[in-house]
Amino acid sequence: MLYLLSDLSNEFIALNVFRYLTFRTGGAVITALLVAFVMGPSIIRWLKTKQGYGQPIRTDGPQSHLVKQGTPTMGGVMMLLGIGIATLLWADISNRYVWVALFVTMSYGLIGFVDDYLKVTKRSVGGLKGRLKLIAEIAIAAVAAYAISVISTPALSERLSVPFFKEVLFDLGIFYVPFGVFVMVGASNAVNLTDGLDGLAIVPVMIAAGVFTIIAYLIGNTVFANYLQVNYVPGAGELAVFCGAVVGAGLGFLWYNAPPAMVFMGDTGSLAMGGALGSVAVVTKHEIVLGIVGGLFVLETVSVIVQVVSFKLTGKRVFHMAPLHHHYEEKGWAEPTIVIRFWIIAVILAVAGLATLKLR
User: Whole-angstrom Cα distance, residue 262 to residue 72?
Assistant: First the structure.
């Protein structure tokens, strides 16, 4: 909404600063950070009051996690508040891409909230039925993917861009929506699988969001897009503000999620954050790059798939326990060691993803 102040710049020259995307992105980072940071203690107290024993801990998981019993979940609420308030305050709310990203993020957050609520009230790790959850995720992603195809310019609508090749665009046609669904649902559940240790998921999410802040800004600017020989996506630059809000909200949440965590993000946060990254990747035509930047989430997901397939076919497990971070826990690695080393991997993959912008 503050963007509208730029209309008064002819009368008050200082208000012209609200036209600048970089300024508004910075404002979104700070606003989301402050909202999550300031409201965090109140939200945590409220969650503790309502949840009692906190998030149910899996009995078949690492035994070291039993000491976390009583830690409240649904901490993703503070991130959703920060992202929502910051985006609406600093973004151009007439931009339809912004509303698509918010729609996916908040809708996935709602699914996660219901799942967390059922887990807490029923004192079970089951939560929302898997099939029902998946159907809801697919439906939301399908609406978003279709909306993106309609909003996009004809030259880019229903097309897939390939990194390293400046003029390669695959026309997916009727398969574009299913592909968009795969990206958003896959990203959402990949982040969800990664969220198993204090601070493990949120930092890679912030790193990926930071990368896509840069990507959105560059591909939404015709000068930079032409220089880098990437596809110019009109209006996508405004998603830099949204991604900045994700980074800021993540920083605010990390203050309370740092080991030992005072609150868990729960499915409320993990599904929403993954959905946010997936929606931005589809809008910016960097879906494959998301697989590189978010490679840590991919590794965690693949470890689960490999474990399940191996056990069903051979009766043997490839890993001590899946997802991958549990494997290293069972090998005796300390939790902070796993978390920090996974952060390092996330940084390396982020740099590799950014390199695709220039290597054409």
Answer: 7
Comparing CA positions, the residue from 201, 178, 345 lying closest to residue 273 is: 201
Q: Are 213 and 240 in contact, with CB atoms under 8 Å apart?
A: yes
299 and 324 Cβ atoms separated by less than 8 Å: yes
Tokens (6 digits) for 44: 């945590």
Strands (E), the chain: 159-161, 169-171
Sign of CA dihedral 74, 201, 112, 32: positive
pLDDT tens track of the chain, all 360 residues? 776 665 555 566 666 777 889 999 999 999 999 999 999 999 999 998 887 766 666 655 565 555 567 789 899 999 999 999 999 999 999 999 999 999 999 999 999 999 999 888 877 667 788 899 999 999 999 999 999 999 998 888 888 988 877 777 888 999 999 999 999 999 999 999 999 899 999 999 999 999 999 999 999 999 999 888 888 999 999 999 999 999 999 999 999 999 889 999 999 999 999 999 999 999 999 999 999 999 999 999 999 999 999 999 898 899 988 899 999 998 989 999 999 999 999 999 999 999 988 876
Query: Residue 288: which of 203, 186, 213, 144 has the closest Cα?
Result: 186
Global confidence as pTM: 0.93
The C-alpha atoms of residue 61 and residue 43 are separated, in whole angstroms, by 27
- Between the two ends of the chain, the Cα-to-Cα distance in Å is 37
How would you label 332-342 residue by residue, b for 16+ Cβ within 10 Å and e otherwise?
eeebeebbeeb
C-alpha to C-alpha distance for 58 and 318, rounded to whole angstroms: 21
What are the extents of the domains in the chain? Answer: 2-6+17-56+65-154+165-286
Question: What does the alpha-carbon distance between residue 180 and residue 63 come to, in Å, rounded to a whole number?
Answer: 38
Give the CA radius of gyration of the chain: 20
Among 56, 105, 59, 46, residue whose Cα is nearest residue 266: 56
Structure tokens at 191: 């982040």
The owner of tokens 């979940």 is 73
Q: How many residues does the chain have?
A: 360
- Alpha carbon distance 110, 132 (integer Å): 13
